[in-house]
Design goal:
The complex is a heterodimer of chains A (259) and B (333).
Chain A lengths: L4 E10 L2 E11 L4 E5 L6 H8 L7 E6 L2 E2 L5 H7 L1 E3 L12 H7 L9 H6 L2 H20 L15 H14 L4 E5 L7 H16 L3 E5 L3 H7 L2 E6 L2 E6 L1 H5 L2 H10 L7
Parallel strand pairs in A: 3-8, 3-9, 6-7, 7-8
Antiparallel strand pairs in A: 1-2, 1-4, 4-5, 9-10
Helix pairs in contact in A: 3-5, 3-6, 5-6
Chain B lengths: L2 H26 L3 H24 L7 H19 L3 H23 L4 H21 L18 E3 L2 E4 L8 H24 L2 H11 L1 H6 L4 H27 L9 H14 L6 H15 L7 H15 L10 H4 L11
Classes of the chains: A alpha/beta (259), B mainly alpha (333).
Bound molecules: adenosine-5'-triphosphate and magnesium ion (MG).
């Protein structure tokens, strides 16, 4: 089957610094692919390139065969490539439920004027968004905190809210940047299950993550970056025994790899 | 507030503005208040526009530019082309909205103090343009604007010519407060519709908003053009009341005041700019007694108010409500 996403020779230079250097890989539909690498390896930059938040210096990203590099980020999101953020980026002042409702924008049938005037289509949209938001909140275990102001949530729920906002946009591919960061063991375990469940809804998942145990458990395939360049690609077992990967990690910091 | 409480507030407000105030003025023969209160209403409209730019997370210190522009568009059309004031009113708003799209597209990419600074300069640019362009008549300004004529439909006079009023400013008072009510009703509806929620999403996080498919640049410009439309309308009516418009009719100080009106009233409340304008306008006049200390006391009080009441005057409520009051945030009713 043709890959849903193709990254070819993508490069991003910030002045003299090459943040991402000639990286190529494919993503198959329905898989969970993790991007790992030491701090500053270029993982977040790679995600920004895929979601078209920054323009590549060279190379391109194709989604279902169509070039998406260079398009405005909201257009790319409309096509189905949706990114969540490394920092717990949420709408701080909105309630959990409202955040998710707002995030349904791409599913609206009514236009802005329709929403302003409260036309039939707009009211139907609003009702549908409410239903769908409740379903997503239920699915991600956020129903209990639905009416909380988002900034009051604990770390674990914040990440889940980030995913909920991403899901509301009805993505084909969801890019999760460090979805398990700052979570304790239990939270991570639940989040891993949740991530799998998201995939089972038919969403292809790309994730950046530092929690190696979680990465090894969840990923179908792993891409490893070091100093912006891809140094390895393969299944969890292949990556764990890869010399260059071990070297990269041991060389930079004493983070251990393995389950 | 419950629906009935809101309805009651609305009825009281409309009654106060359209009945109680004119009756009081009639009883006390203080007809000068018609002019004063018209000014407050028009400044409130312009401030309401500024408030909307705040609502998408931009500090706008440039509303004076659009008020001036609106005043000139109306005045030029009336004086030079003999167009009826009533037609120039929406045209002035539309002209400002269109200009703000062109200006907004590049400058709305800036945030925080950078955007604020550019808008501040904008007022000065428009003032200098008014001085320099041939069509605006330079420093001499546009003067002797005729009062608005009648509006008739199928031979039926809906609004009599302002000339027929014994006290012309009474007619302007009704016009100003009516337009103010319409503008704020439109603003209220906007903020409480899904469009308002999208604006809050922008205000809270533009990156996240675009990652979920919002056309952030377009929405920003939309909010800014509505804001400028309000500025243009306010400026146009102002020119009609004053029967003139000069390059100095709206200056940087006015732009700053529009912003302060919003701060004072409360950024989290649609009607904040209305209250803020009223309080600030009369507060400034009262301080006139203080002579040379007017500005000092004024600034001191403003700073103190912002420290004590960061969410504005409208955040003063019974204690059990206060917890729920948050600035700049859309809340479900
Ligand atoms: N906007 C920018 N301007 C200049 N340099 C940047 C910019 N964004 C990222 N970089 C640099 O590019 C490199 C890669 O950054 P990136 O954020 O992609 O790393 P990362 O792999 O996500 O790291 P972490 O694991 O810490 O999140 C870093 O050296 C960073 O300093
Ligand atoms: Mg990163």
């Amino acid at each position: 089957m043709a890959p849903i996403l193709t990254v070819s020779g993508i490069t991003k230079q910030y002045g003299g610094l090459v943040a991402v250097n000639d990286v190529s890989f494919d993503v198959a539909e329905g898989e969970i692919l993790s991007v790992i690498g030491p701090n500053g390896a270029g993982k977040s930059t790679l995600f920004k390139l895929i979601a078209s938040f920054v323009r590549p210096t060279r190379g391109e990203v194709r989604f279902k065969g169509e070039r998406i590099s260079g398009l405005a980020p909201h257009i790319v999101a409309r096509k189905g490539v949706v990114r969540t953020f490394q920092e717990t980026t949420i709408f701080k002042g909105l309630t959990v439920r409202d955040s998710v409702i707002v995030a349904h924008h791409l599913r609206s049938h009514a236009g802005l004027l329709g929403f302003y005037l409260g036309t039939k289509a707009a009211r139907e949209d609003e009702a549908e968004f409410g239903r769908s938001a409740d379903e997503i909140l239920e699915f991600l275990g956020l129903r209990a905190v639905a009416d909380e102001i988002a900034s009051n949530l604990p770390q674990g729920s914040l990440r889940a809210l980030g995913v909920a906002i991403g899901l509301a946009a009805n993505p084909k591919i969801l890019l999760l940047d460090e979805p398990f960061a700052g979570m304790n063991h239990d939270e991570t375990r639940r989040a891993v299950e949740m991530t799998r469940a998201v995939r089972d809804r038919g969403v292809t998942l790309l994730l950046v993550e530092h929690d190696m145990a979680a990465v090894m458990r969840i990923s179908d395939r792993i891409v490893v970056l070091n100093f912006g360049a891809k140094i390895a690609e393969g299944t969890a077992t292949e990556i764990q025994s890869n010399e260059r990967v071990i070297e990269a990690y041991l060389g930079v910091e004493d983070e251990t790899i393995g389950v | 507030m419950s629906t009935s409480a809101r309805l009651a507030t609305l009825v009281i407000f409309v009654f106060a503005v359209f009945v109680a105030v004119p009756v009081l003025i009639g009883l006390t023969h203080r007809t000068d208040f018609y002019y004063t209160l018209s000014s407050v209403a028009l400044l409130a409209i312009a401030s309401g526009g500024v408030w909307l730019t705040f609502y998408i997370g931009r500090i706008n210190i440039g509303q004076g530019a659009y008020a001036l522009m609106g005043g000139y568009v109306s005045a030029i059309l009336v004086v030079r082309y003999g167009v009826s004031f009533w037609i120039t009113l929406p045209l002035a708003g539309a002209f400002c909205a269109a200009a703000s799209v062109l200006i907004g597209l590049p400058i709305l990419r800036l945030r925080g103090v950078y955007f604020a600074m550019v808008t501040l300069v904008l007022t000065e640019v428009v003032r200098l343009l008014a001085l320099a362009l041939p069509i605006t008549n330079g420093a001499k300004g546009m003067v002797s604007l005729p009062p608005p004529g009648p509006i008739s439909l199928f031979g039926l006079t809906l609004v009599p010519s302002f000339d027929t009023f014994a006290e012309r400013n009474e007619a302007f008072y009704y016009l100003s407060v009516a337009v103010m009510c319409v503008c704020f009703a439109a603003l209220y509806r906007l903020v409480h519709s899904r469009v308002g929620r999208l604006f809050v999403a922008l205000q809270q996080n533009e990156e996240l908003a675009s990652s979920m498919g919002l056309n952030v640049p377009a929405l920003r410009v939309l909010a800014y053009s509505i804001s400028s439309f309000f500025g243009g309308i306010g400026g146009a009516i102002f020119a009609a009341i004053a029967q003139s418009v000069y390059p100095s009719s709206f200056t940087v100080a006015d732009s700053v005041n529009f912003m302060l009106n919003c701060f004072l009233g409360g950024l989290g409340f649609v009607f904040g700019p209305m209250l803020g304008t009223l309080v600030l306008y009369f507060g400034w006049d009262l301080l006139f007694q203080a002579g040379q200390y007017q500005l000092l006391i004024y600034s001191g009080v403003m700073i103190a108010l912002m420290l004590v009441l960061p969410n504005g005057l409208l955040s003063i409520r019974p204690l059990n409500f206060r917890k729920r009051v948050r600035p700049l945030i859309w809340r479900r009713s």
